[in-house]
Amino acid sequence: MSITIKTGTDIDAMRVACKLASEVLDYLTPFIKPGITTREIDKLSLDYMVNVQGTKSATLGYAPPGHLPYPASLCTSVNDVVCHGVPNDIALKDGDIINLDVTIITPDGWFGDNSRMFIVGEGTIAAKRLCHVTYEAMWKGIEQVKPGARLGDIGHAIQTFAENAGYSVVREYCGHGIGRKFHEDPQVLHYGRPGTREELVPGMIFTIEPMINLGKRDIKEGRKGKGPYDGWTIVTKDRSLSAQWEHTVLVTETGYEVLTLSAESPPPPDFILTKQATPA
Prior knowledge:
With 280 residues, the protein is of the alpha+beta class. 27% of the residues lie in helices and 22% in strands. It has a single domain (9-277), classed as Creatinase/methionine aminopeptidase superfamily (Creatine Amidinohydrolase), CATH 3.90.230.10. The longest helix has 20 residues, at 9-28.
């Protein structure tokens, strides 16, 4: 494993990239209503990146080994879709939940990555609770980030919180380092044992992006009836709801900095705000 430590101007460049990524989600937020299709959301996203920001989508055309090129500017994962949902012409309806996962590339070649959950219309109590607990689970992981902590501390905090709430944590996908590459070391698992895996040091930048299921943690390829697999969409095996939130985080000298937290982002949960307000 080769972890790239960012310093000085690299960190400043990542702050810019992550701010731009969060602003795409800020822009899309008012459009997430019943009746809009995920393909329309994709068009809005790409237009904003290219014509307003001057950035590029990291996902459009992205083709890691064994995959077809991804066909859209963002991932749109609805209801039982765990991750990598491909935009289509199906309109969102009242009660749906959707994750929008946006990664941009700046003109200087830096990547910014984040995702948010949206409840379409009213939403059920079960859907709202799943989204809320998943958000808090992500922050439980973020709360562990400081020099000297271990990657296993992050995963353990997320897993413990989610499972104590009655949910399950997807294990096949994880967070990742990010910088001049979309996916760098380390892999940030959302489960694990405290005190294990790599030690965190200042200058590390990675994503924390737990995928949490209402039912069991098992996943499978998402297919439409008997049609061919699109090569990307992953769903819960039991077709239960799944939620995901994602922030990109910098390890600082004293703790962490959330690089994708914008003025329009959902605020940190109370347990984070209370801790930040408490004198040292």
